[in-house]
Amino acid sequence: MPIAQFDGALAVVTGAGRGLGRATALALAERGATVVAADLDRPAAERTAAQAAKLGAGGVAYEVDVSDAAAMERFAAWVRAEHRVPDIVVNNAGILVNGPFLETGLDDWERIVGVDLWGVIHGCRLFGRQMAERVRALPVRPEPPNFGGHIVNIASAAAFAPWRGQAAYNTTKAAVVMLSESLRAELAGLRIGVTAVCPGFTTTGIAQAATFVGLDEAGRRRARERAQKMLRMRNYPPEKVAERIVAAIAKNKPLVPVGAESHLVRALSRLSPGAMRLLARVPNPLA
Predict the structure, then answer these.
(1) Is residue 182 in a domain?
(2) 231-235 mean pLDDT
(3) Disulfide check for 25: which of 16, 147, 206, 234 has CB 3.0–4.6 Å away?
(4) Is 5 domain-assigned?
């Protein structure tokens, strides 16, 4: 399974209907991978799959809610039965909940933990198990460090930086980084690579679909418009992040900050945690 070249690889991408998931699916397809584009929005997944099929070896869509354990079990079993064990899995599906911690309700916490953390856990557990079983069945272990397969978990620059008004999102993304680091250590002996990718502000639709707590309808509309405007001004397209994801798989990178702000907050969190805590008190630019 030639991960570095991607020719003949089978790649599963969640949240593939738009934004970063779509860009990643197409980047992998361009390099010869067959793509399973999974998304809660089936028509969006089908559009991505159709484009991937034009670019690469093939594309197929699947509708799934990554927060639903039973649905993910069925999805993983379907991929194996209809195709085979995937070589690349990109756990990308995510949502954003913004607003004061004390006004973030249990329903909001359950939604974001369900998608942003449990969705990653389900993808790692189910497809990681399939990859591990495949490697154990081989007469000899594959030599290159990630030829047993590769799992990419999309975290965020928010994993490095506490920020007022974004406790729920930051918590789940920090957990994704630690999960990825721990899983990488556990699967290394099976030549299965694991990478956490931490993009900064990227021009996707995440702000448009975000939940803003502690505001009335007019306030939520203004916050959504403000966040979308800021992301447009940053003008960092998801295709650039997708290129970094592809490179991270080929080079088996453990942790990949993407964008100037991601590199900056990671460096600041390591070199001056006190300064990072002070910066966290600044009003959230996405709120």
Answers:
(1) yes
(2) 82
(3) 16
(4) no
Q: What does the block give as tokens for 172?
A: 């789940």
**How many other C-beta atoms can be found within 10 angstroms of the C-beta atom of residue 107?**
10
Residue 1's pLDDT is 47
Residue labelled with tokens 């990630």: 146
Nearest to 184 by CA among 133, 249, 233: 249
The pTM for the full model equals 0.93
User: Which listed residue (163, 169, 212, 236) is catalytic?
Assistant: 169
User: Hey, what are 48's tokens?
Assistant: 């991505």
Q: What is the pLDDT of residues 37-77, one digit of tens each?
A: 999 999 999 999 999 999 978 999 999 999 999 999 999 99
CATH of the domain at 121: 3.40.50.720
Tell me which long-range contacts 99-102 makes (C-beta under 8 A, separation of at least 24).
99/165, 99/211, 99/212, 99/213, 99/214, 99/215, 99/287, 100/164, 100/165, 100/213, 100/214, 101/167, 101/168
Residue 4 lies in a domain: no
For residue 267 the two structure tokens come to: 């460096």
Residue 285 lies inside a defined structural domain of this protein: no
169 counts as catalytic: yes
- Amino acid residing at 115: V
pLDDT tier at 223 (50, 70, 90 boundaries)? Answer: confident
Residue 72 to residues 63, 78, 92, 120, 121, Cα–Cα distance (Å):
10, 10, 14, 11, 10
Looking only at the bridges linking them, the beta strands covering 88-91 and 149-154 are: parallel
**Contact in structure between 249 and 145 (CB atoms under 8 Å):** no
Per residue in 112-168, pLDDT (tens digit) is: 999 999 999 999 999 999 999 999 998 877 666 668 999 999 999 999 989 888 999
What's residue 3's pLDDT? 57
Structural domain for 128, as ranges: 10-279
